[in-house]
Specification:
mainly alpha; about 160 residues
Length: about 160
């Protein structure tokens, strides 16, 4: 019994470390092409198939268009379709909504993938209080640097 408990604990700890690494890398990804590449590489190496990991992998596909020289449109389309599908299957997942909001905020307007910014921002604000401390901190850090949140909305995230 102790062995099973130890294995489960180790698995949870290992998974959480991967998720934290993805979050940290994603938060830095737009600051430079090197950080974008680092995030893409980290996302591609993830073996998890949970919704959040899949969401980061979809975001990595979209971000790959930023540094790619060919097939940029296809990368965005494939990644966006995947991200939308994941969110459709997990509509109440705040982290997936944050991923989509950040992608839509940072993608060039000409691409046209910007239709959920208001809905996702509202969802983040309305569901912020229900999250664990780590996720609250992650959402708050995103909101503080986001162009979509007003000063009043930022102040409401405590």
């Amino acid at each position: 019994m102790k062995l099973i408990l130890s294995l489960v604990t180790a698995f949870i700890f290992f998974f959480q470390t991967d998720l934290d690494a993805l979050r940290n890398s994603y938060a830095k990804a737009n600051s430079s092409n090197a950080n974008t590449e680092a995030f893409i590489n980290l996302a591609e190496k993830q073996s998890g198939s949970d919704a959040v990991t899949s969401g980061y992998k979809a975001a990595a596909q979209i971000m790959e268009a930023k540094i790619a020289t060919k097939n940029r449109k296809a990368l965005v389309k494939t990644g966006a379709t995947s991200l939308e599908s994941i969110i459709r299957n997990n509509p109440n997942n705040i982290e997936l909504r944050l991923i989509r909001l950040s992608v839509q905020e940072n993608i060039p307007k000409i691409v046209g993938y910007r239709g959920s910014i208001k809905d996702d921002k509202t969802f983040l604000i309305n569901n912020y209080g229900k999250q664990n401390a780590a996720l609250k901190n992650y959402v708050k850090r995103f909101a503080m640097q986001s162009k979509s949140f007003s000063d009043t909305e930022k102040a409401s995230l405590k």
